[in-house]
Design a protein that fits this description.
Layout lengths: L2 E7 L2 E8 L11 E7 L7 H12 L3 E5 L18 H16 L4 E11 L1 H12 L5 E5 L25 E7 L7 H13 L4 E6 L17 H19 L2
Parallel strand pairs: 3-4, 3-5, 5-6, 6-7, 7-8
Antiparallel strand pairs: 1-2, 2-4
Helix pairs in contact: 2-3
Length: 236
Amino acid sequence: MAHWEEMSVDGKPVKIFAGLPPVATQGGGPFPAFLLCQHAPGLDAFTERVIDRLAEHGFASFAWDAYHRTGADHPDRRDGVTDDGLLIDMKATLAHMAKNPKVDMRRIGIAGHCMGGRTAYLGAASIDAFRVCGVFWGGSIALPRGHTGPSPLDLSKNIKCAVIGFFGNDDKNPSPDDVNKIDAELTRSGVPHDFHRYDGAGHAFQNFTNPTNYREAQAEDAWAKELAFFKAKLTP
């Protein structure tokens, strides 16, 4: 189901990994959709599985190449990712999604894993297009990228949608204390949110391509909870 598309950012081509529900081939839609923010390893087999699994449950999704400014193989590729650049990319991806008649732009969510969880939080706090935000072990939410501030956490009061978060209690970034601070700031800002924390799990516990970190029981529990949450917010 996942396939490659292309958009233009600052006059240059950018790859998008996208997917539509299987019924799209039978004339169905338009569908609720996710702006999917890539994790640190890039657009890989894990990203493909996330796209396909969302598609199986009736969601379209679109993940852009966040390393297009530095190159996916550059050793310092993450250092070239800035908040300003991410916001430009998110708006461009939303514009690309809006051109697809199979996408219902009235029912859009944003989600991401690892660095993508932080990106999703930034997007929800900066763009009023989303009805739900999914944060999966997003680290460094309290730190700005490419500027001195504010950080995504500082922008929490601007979030207009419900947030669901999934975290491993053995993680170091975000640590349980980091998650407590995010939880407290969302509460202080009046943002509805639902956080799930897992013992015996650390960073990337849903990533089956990482056998050291993958925890099947916790991963499947998180999948069940996230899909129920997404359906409640984005489907009739």
